[in-house]
Amino acid sequence: MMVEEKFYSDRERLVQALTHDCACALQKGIKEHGQASFLVSGGSTPEPVYRELSKRPLPWQQINVALVDERWVEPGASGSNQTFIEKSLLQNYAAEAPFLGMKNAHATAAAGQADCERAYAELLRPFDVCVLGMGNDGHTASLFPHAEGLEAALDPKSPQLCRAITAQQSEVTGSHTERMTLSLSAILQARDIKLLITGEEKLRVYREALLGSDELAMPVRSILKQGLNSVSVYWAP
Fold first, then answer.
1. What Rg, from alpha-carbon coordinates, does the chain have?
2. Residue 129 counted as domain residue
């Protein structure tokens, strides 16, 4: 199993370490290919990392920022990951970065999947960095337990990068059950997969994910146990 645990005594140290590691990986991509791709997740946990990164004078015009997943809501609406990334990461120096969102003009995620796929196929691969989070239910990206569309999204051999998902409504999903997400095969096309978790409860869920094998019950297992790419797990209390 290719999981590297980077555990820190406090969140400030975690933020500094993950910011540094993301910046180095993006610079490496630019040095090798003239550009880099940075796949980002929403949520309060990575927010301080994005704010810190935005202040780094990287060649942001050459860093393509793209979402890992999105609720099927208009930008500006409550829960929009696009709006969250615009307000947290795409500020300061990083305001110059090209950005690719997932929500498009289609009424449903299923109807919008083909357009999303075409847009993501334009990104340079392998992706340089993919930042993932994890919920207390064991989801990552918008790969939710037993969601409609989950099995297809977890097919590691699928050529599809983007998948429409309908989650089962829960405390974790809230009312926004219709999502677009990167597929497992897309995430595994990232050279650097970084899973960010904080707090004792998520540490317990992470350990549970490592022990079991049912990926439909805890989709984060599909990332942790795939054995093809190394995954760095960042944690602080």
1. 16
2. no
Q: Which two tokens mark 187?
A: 């995430």
- pLDDT on residue 21: 98
H-helix segments, 131-180: 150-153
8-to-13, 197, 233 alpha-carbon distances in Å: 6, 11, 11
Q: Say how many domains are in the chain.
A: 1
Element (DSSP H or E) covering residue 16: helix 11-33
Residue 170 is encoded by which pair of tokens? 């829960």
Q: Please report whether residue 203 resides in a domain.
A: yes
Distance from C-alpha of 148 to C-alpha of 171, rounded to nearest angstrom: 17
What token pair was written down for 115? 């357009």
Q: Which amino acid is at 228?
A: L
* Ranges of residues in the chain whose predicted pLDDT is under 50: none
Domain containing residue 24: CATH number: 3.40.50.1360
Task: Give the strands of the sheet with 231-236, arranged side by side.
Answer: 3-7, 231-236, 190-198, 127-132, 36-40, 63-67, 99-100
Q: How far apart are CA 220 and CA 236, in angstroms?
A: 18
How far apart, in whole angstroms, are the C-alpha atoms of residue 79 and residue 7?
29
- The predicted model scores a pTM of 0.97
